[in-house]
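Form 12-C: Joint structure prediction
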Amino acid sequence: MDKSFTERRRRELLVAACLAVAAALVPLFVKNPNVQNIMILTLMFGALSQSWNILSGYCGQISLGHALYFGLGAYTTTLLFTKFGVPPWFGMLAGGVISAVIAMALGYPCFRLGGHYFAIATIVIAEIGLLLIQNWDWAGAALGIEMPVRGDSWLKFQFARSKLPYFYFALALACIAWIVTWWLEDSKWGYWWRAVKDNPDAAQSLGVVVFDSKMGAAAVSAFLVAVGGSFYAMYVSYIDPGSVMGFQFSLLMALPAVLGGIGTLWGPLLGAVILIPLTELTRSYIGGSGRGVDLIVYGTLIVVIALARPEGLIGLFSRRKETAR
Amino acid sequence: MTAETIIQSLASGLLMGLLYGLIAVGLALIFGLMDVVNFAHGEFLMIAMYVTFFLFTFFAIDPLLAAPLAAAALFVLGAVVYLVVVRFAMRAKANVGMVQIFATFGLAIVMRGLAQLFFTADYRSVPQSWLGGKTVSIAGIFLPQPQLFGALVAIAAFGGLYLFINRTDFGRALEATREDPGAVALVGIDKNRVFALGWGLGGALVGLAGAIMASFFYIYPDVGASFALIAYVTVALGGFGSVFGAFAGGIIVGLVEATTALVLPPSLKSVGIYAVYLLVVFIRPRGLFGSM
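Section 2 - Result
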């Protein structure tokens, strides 16, 4: 490993630490709850997309059904809390573990499928999950389920008066997803994943355990997405199957990574920082009339970025880096 | 549950399945031609339904007669989408797969937004048509006429498509381009032209389907989404790129859906389709008729 590489990794860590500290200071100056809400969603989608990126970006297994794990996290936490009074922190852990186990159980047959057959299998499995929850009366069926308000407390992770605890939790989530990715990038797993993505047959012949690498990526990815789902459930305190487990959500989760730069360390966060505020602003400024203009703006943006920057917006930064190297 | 009910629902399942095949075949054709999955396919269907609706509302043209017009309109839309968006998506040097998915997905969102803006989110329907609400009884089984007509159109369209691909110069050019887009340039075939016509043809087929659906289904901006998912499953079940696979896949999906509706609550009827898809690809990873 040459020196410049180690140096680059250390510099990345430093940049990330500075950004995290800067982000942590923002709410001290920005008190507007609407802006704080957008920041929380941006951090959450950054974390989700970063987690999706581990399986789909680094390992190359395009999942269009990650809403399943998001929904599992959200529902596990909500159901444990409302029905059994289990604090959300345990629900979060339980949701993560359940999702990771399910991801591996589903991966076992699915990872044999290639390309579009795999992607459609992920959509279909998430749809089955959605339909089952929609028909499960105990879990609120299609109407969804509400988190009862039990007063502000850290144990119950409920804060009616301030958005700040949610903000810092979302920030922590984004940091964890980033650090996990950063650490995995230079681990044995990271190299395996990229080998599996580029050429699974060659990787296999060189002794990479292709199947196990995919399973590992799926478990990590699903766990982190489920934690994001738990957070979302606690933050909005009302969930319904369509909005947390629908196909649309799977795409929304993938979008920041794709637009920012799929399979890159900074892509998902960059994509989220640009996309989420834009989505929220177009929705609140021109979407209020319900006339579809927000959809037109949003869709056009996706088409334009996808066509103009196929390698992701991160490409705008990397050119400079390449000449410097 | 009597034998009659079972035969009755299998018969309606078969009709619906042929229609599913017609919805899906455009997707299969485009994929076979250039390895692109059109994520705006459901929105093509939605637009065809609106075209039929407005032809009926403003010019009192029956959906039966509107079908060729809707097909023509969607032919133009398909070709334009290729020339304006997909052509450039295919030039991407990185992440070609994701760029195609998200370029067409973005387009789908734009189309839904446009539909909301111009046609509003209201549910619309064609209140009366020549076949609407009428049934025909064959050996004690009642078949709704619009669906029966749709099934016949689907069979005719598949037959026509088969002849078109195998017996015409353009069909041969299509086959040749699909085998080797680079080499066809040497014999004077313009790849872009063939691709644009392929997209047009794919659009025209879903246009036919949309016109038929308009006479017995509600029309609203998001109507495409649920049918698009069924179309993807149909195409993948039959094997990506196989036109015959889409036909067979459609029939299977229709029958499975009808059977599931017999044993599970109606809201779970799609579970059967999804489960059968998974079962098939776990055994045959490239679908029923996909090339290995």
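Section 3 - Comments
Chain B has one domain: 3-283. Chain B has ten helices and two strands.
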